[in-house]
Write a structure and sequence with these properties.
single chain, 466 residues, two-stranded antiparallel ribbon, mainly alpha, globular, 3-stranded antiparallel beta sheet
């Protein structure tokens, strides 16, 4: 019922209500916080060590089950343990992934770091068991690839190229060599199969240092898809192995070569105004398309991270590489998506969000904070968000979702926009292990005090507003 007072509708007097006290400040804050809570699509608060460890455990459980370290007869599928006769019918036991691929080199490195971060021996045992299998079994297949011809640029490779352990016994590319070499050297330095791995490490480094095609200035290069081209991916397929070899042997020539690759690739491929790398570069092409593919930028930042980890403090190129690393991190930080992941083409937010690159950035930025290369207050919140987003991409089975499949060098956007994603793209597993392990280290070190304060992730509680 309303009455009119001076032409204004007014409510009729209400019955007397009992007086109510105003909520205290803490209760009012809780009411307002609940009323105005952001609808984050992923958990926002920093993950705990236990939560991170649960993600790593799921990934480990899946990978341990689907990467058997054994040979079987091609026809009968029975296990092969006697290699004294013909090995023509011996093949790898079926699994979801290959145990001697460059992607699995990253995975072995991730397992080793997870063992270090968690103290759980199962991660180290995963590496030990598979490296022992490679060391014991690969030599039986060496004779079959002793005189292997070069693979054709186009068309089907000769049968010898499909011999088990071909890439171990007869590496013919950086993909064959660098990632596995880096993992084997890390394992050796940690006391895992050290003596057994020496012949393979030596063979890999011989390829990288002396046999891979290079430009006249020593830059590692390729002849496909075009003559005299650079793939940004090759920084990871070479630099970590060279860096680890320098650390293991003390021979400075390996550090010098690794630093040269970073600097000479960067002269051609780093786009300074964006803080990003182009994916490919072809000699004589001008202007050159610049497509900033996310995972290739990941390989570049990881190569710098792993070199800085072991490069002597007095190396003449260290400051230049550290400056490049920081410039690249700044470029990547500016393009992180609102849900914590990065896009397939970094500067094109209508391209899809991609997990493997996001995990690599998480690892490299967390490592930079832990090593004192990056300001903790500035980068801990973004890397906390990044890990939470990556963790959401690990399903209950332990598979990593939304990972771009293997990708060549493209010269138009559609090539990158429509690359498929798959849980069987092997590129996602090592980066997730590395990222989770490094986030555990961050929680135990410089990020030990991170929390949600004043509504945002910070390093310490907000100061009084008065």
């Amino acid at each position: 019922m309303f009455t009119a007072v001076l032409g204004v509708a007014c409510a009729a007097p209400l019955l007397a209500q009992p007086a109510q006290s105003r909520p205290d400040r803490q209760t009012l804050a809780q009411i307002n916080a609940g009323r105005n809570a952001p609808a984050y699509p992923i958990p926002y608060a920093p993950a705990s060590v236990a939560e991170i460890t649960q993600v790593l455990d799921r990934v480990y459980g899946y990978l341990d089950a689907v990467t058997p370290a054994k040979m079987v007869d091609r026809k009968t599928q029975q296990a092969v343990t006697d290699f004294s006769g013909s090995v023509d019918n011996a093949v790898f036991a079926h699994g979801d992934f290959q145990v001697v691929s460059y992607e699995w080199g990253v995975t072995y490195s991730g397992m080793l770091l997870a063992a270090q971060a968690t103290g759980e021996t199962k991660y180290r045992d995963y590496v030990r068991e598979r490296f022992a299998f490679i060391a014991e079994t690969a030599p039986h297949f060496a004779a079959a690839v002793a005189d292997l011809p070069e693979a054709p640029v186009a068309g089907r490779a000769p049968a010898g190229w499909r011999t088990p352990f071909r890439s171990v016994n007869a590496p013919h590319s950086l993909d064959d060599s660098g990632s596995m070499a880096a993992a084997m050297i890390k394992a050796s330095r940690a006391g895992v199969e050290a003596d057994a791995l020496k012949p393979f490490i030596g063979r890999y480094l011989e390829w990288i240092s002396k046999e891979q095609y290079r430009f006249p200035d020593g830059t590692l290069a390729r002849h496909r898809p075009l003559e005299n081209s650079l793939w940004l991916d090759d920084l990871y397929m070479s630099v970590p192995a060279l860096a680890q070899m320098g650390a293991m042997t003390g021979n400075g020539k390996y550090f010098d070569d690794a630093a040269k690759q970073i600097l000479q690739f960067s002269e051609r491929m780093f786009v300074g105004e964006k803080g990003l790398y182009r994916h490919g570069w072809v000699e004589g092409m001008e202007p050159h398309p610049a497509f900033h593919w996310a995972r290739a930028n990941g390989w570049a930042i990881m190569a710098m991270t792993e070199l800085l980890d072991v490069l002597p403090a007095d190396h003449p190129q260290r400051e230049k590489i550290l400056t490049l690393y920081r410039a690249h991190v700044a470029g990547l930080a500016a393009l992180q998506g609102g849900t914590g992941l990065w896009h397939q083409l970094l500067d094109r937010p209508d391209s899809y969000l991609e997990t493997s690159a996001s995990a690599i950035y998480t690892y490299c930025i967390a490592r930079g904070i832990n090593q004192g290369w990056l300001e903790p207050h500035a980068f801990i919140p973004m890397v906390s968000l990044a890990w939470n987003a990556v963790a959401k991409q690990v399903n209950d089975k332990g598979q990593v979702e939304n990972v771009c499949v293997g990708t060549g060098m493209g010269f138009d956007p559609a090539f990158y926009y429509y690359r498929p994603v798959s849980v069987y793209a092997a590129h996602g597993y090592g980066p997730v292990l590395l990222a989770g392990a490094e986030m555990i280290a961050l929680h135990k070190g410089k990020g030990a005090e991170m929390l949600v304060s004043d509504g945002a992730v910070q390093m310490e509680p907000a100061k009084s507003r008065h």
